[in-house]
Amino acid sequence: MTSPQQIPAAELSELIGAIYDCSLDPQRWAATCRKIAQRCDSAGGGICVHDLKQIQNDQLYVFGYEPEFLQKFGARYAESPMAAADVLSNAGDVSALSMERFHLHDSAFYREVLQPHGVLDIIWFPALRTGGRMASLHASRSGESLHYQQSDLALFELLAPHVCRALAISDALDIQVLSSEVLKRTLDGLAAGVFLAARDGRVVYMNTAAERQVRSGTAMRLIDNRLSPVHPAARAALTQAIQDSGREGADMRTKDHAIGIPGGTGGGYVATLLPIADGRRAGVLAPFAASVAVFIQDPVQAPLMPGEAFGRLHGLTGGELRVLMALSQGLGGMEAAGVLGVGEPTIRTHLQRIYSKTGTSRQGDLLRLLHHSTPPTRHQTRLAD
Prior knowledge:
Structural class: alpha+beta
């Protein structure tokens, strides 16, 4: 086995540097966990997040495991020696299941969860506690390998303080590494581009739609890692709005910072800024935290709100909703009557009731209300764009 002393200084320095790189880019943890596992001859590993109240276990950046094992491990995590040990352990305390105090081979957890999937031993340490949840980094051996030895424990003890600091920095910078995977999946489901920017305008996060908008370059670009609309007036307005939104105590109303961003060949986007208020940013790390969310949407691509949801929102009957959806397709009253198989007076009666329920008085206002109720989620047909 390779001991910390036997690892070349340059390689050890590179590994520690990779750990700190993860503090600013949590997606690097996947590759970094692999590097750490390789250093102690491990086939699997990653970062686990444990809910200390619900006794749940979620896997982040894990590799080397079958889905069935991860599902069973999570379901029975409360029975594991790891769950009990982590309640009493301090951040950075390194343990291995093969340690004598765990009596691993006598446990039902080993016989029923680990052994059937060929997991021989697990080495880990708790790295961060936050909000009733705890993150730990681990590696595991399988097959005919030996249990973890003192040299492996020594390597983990050497790396543990750096991993703990990197995760603490991520949390302090408001990157929220413990929920970044769930957050990323949620934001990537939005049709609107979502940019999180620091007070100085640097973009610290983009969702998938935002990346596409930047790649197209027709209306929005990134220059020096800052949002830079192609149109000069829009660029000046957006830069000023980000600065205003990023000020301490900023509480701007949405209508005051909705900005049109024209495209180079017609069309373009509408940007809406939302200040992100958080008292934790008052410290020395504040300049590096996201202080404003910028939502950029293409009005042409905005999907319509599902009619059923709009109808429930305003208490429309089935007949009223069918009339509204027919009108939303550009049909006139007579055309809608023909399509729905009713008389034109019925269309007018339904329309008057819709006006009353939605607080509108004209068809144009009603259709604008429907359009403005559009959620920023993508149609399934756009997922492959």
